[in-house]
Specification:
5-stranded parallel sheet, 14 helices, 404 residues, single chain
Length: 404
């Protein structure tokens, strides 16, 4: 029988750790992976750095007298939307009201926690996991959100499984392209040029693992991977799903019920974590003016599965208009070209978005002189041949990442 909180990751913030362990025994028995911290500051650091699905927070702990309220306020300011359950003692009615106003999903009297905590955690997480795909479809960068939205819409079991695999591949592709855009080129162990020239789901997965091991890889690459695979042991499940895709694609049989459940659980938990914790944006600058001190930049934000949303920003440095950029919450923007590009549709005048999808070999077969092949990263229609896609010979750039 499957345990109701199997592999769910819960952080428990309470300065009375022994008491917290006793109260959380039912969660452990239900399969939750628990981490304990003794104050709000340690909880904030942990939530900022590692994937958690839920936080259980004691109201009265350091820092300050009501450290739980301090933590809820800091999570709100930082944009970290992890669901929280507050533990309160007798006579803390005003603090409970304040906790709910600060975004706590629920609260429990600490004296009753050993009996009520498991049911409340299951209820809160059940609601969050049920809505996770819908939230991710409006909050995550376009290339991922679009695929998750398609997965959520499909009902036929076999088609849904394949859409789930496409969504999983989109996550790996986006993370890998972020790594390629932000890291200094060098040969990656186990990555062959033949695989980069025609990348599969397995190629993107291996690229993520290799790029995450680089000292200069962007921290958001590691976060995306950890939200999908918190532990190394989770990689075995991904490998199994890659094999299942090959099996289904080559007509060797349909996915099993267990495989369908695995990918649904995987995508819902990833969607829940990223919707709660992902703070960066994908954007493209459309115009820019300079007032002598700052650049006023008109942007399109590529967020969610719908049309890009107009926005404005101010910066001390110019941005390249038309270039897709990654805007982390902290730090400088990262140009995504030539891995993700924008091209103006001559018929509608809308910007269309494409991601790297391999190489078009040159006539002489020289991979170094080959051009990039692109695939749609949005839901645009019409033939790619009608668009002015780049034809620069970029195979040499790709060769610098291959180890064989």
């Amino acid at each position: 029988m499957k345990r109701p909180l199997a592999d769910v990751r819960v952080i428990v913030a309470d300065d009375q750790v022994d008491v917290a362990r006793t109260l959380c025994r039912p969660l452990h028995a239900a399969g939750a992976r628990l981490q304990y911290v003794e104050d709000g500051r340690a909880a904030l650091r942990a939530i900022s750095e590692r994937p958690f699905d839920l936080a259980v927070i004691d109201m009265k702990m350091p820092p300050e007298e009501w450290g739980g309220l301090w933590l809820l306020e800091e999570l709100r300011v930082a944009g970290l939307g992890i669901p929280t359950i507050s533990l309160s003692g007798e006579g803390a009615k005003q603090q409970v009201i304040q906790a709910i106003r600060l975004g706590a999903a629920d609260w429990i009297n600490k004296d009753a926690a050993s009996e009520e905590l498991l049911d409340r955690c299951c209820q809160v997480l059940g609601e969050r996991f049920a809505n996770a795909l819908d939230l991710a479809s409006v909050r995550l960068p376009l290339p991922i959100a679009l695929r998750l939205a398609r997965y959520a819409r499909v009902s036929d079991p076999d088609r849904k499984f394949m859409e789930g695999l496409h969504a999983l591949e989109a996550v790996f592709r986006f993370a890998a392209l972020l790594g390629l855009a932000s890291s200094f080129p060098r040969p990656l162990p186990g990555i062959r040029m033949s695989s980069l020239a025609a990348p599969s789901m397995g190629t993107w997965f291996q690229l993520c693992i290799a790029l995450d091991g680089l000292s200069d890889s962007h921290k958001d690459l590691g976060r995306l991977i950890s939200w999908l695979m918190p532990d190394r042991t989770d990689r075995a499940l991904i490998q199994e799903l890659v094999s299942a895709r090959n099996q289904v694609a080559h007509g060797r049989g349909p996915a099993t019920p267990a495989q369908r459940e695995s990918i649904d659980t995987l995508l819902r938990r990833f969607s829940h974590r990223t919707s709660s914790l992902f703070a960066a944006e994908l954007a493209v600058a459309t115009s820019m003016t300079f007032d002598g001190s700052f650049y006023d930049i008109d942007l399109l934000i590529l967020k969610g599965a719908g049309r890009p949303a107009p926005s404005q920003s101010q910066a001390r440095r110019p941005m390249v208009t038309g270039q897709v950029v990654y805007l982390p919450k902290c730090g400088e923007e990262i140009g995504f070209g030539p891995w993700i590009i924008s091209v103006r549709d001559p018929h509608s005048d809308d910007l269309r978005f494409f991601h790297f999808d391999g190489l078009r070999k040159s006539r002489g077969g020289d991979l170094g002189q080959a051009t990039f092949r692109y695939a749609r990263a949005d839901d645009g229609e019409g033939p790619l041949e009608a668009l002015d896609l780049p034809q620069n010979a970029l195979g040499e750039m790709l060769l610098s990442w291959a180890s064989g």
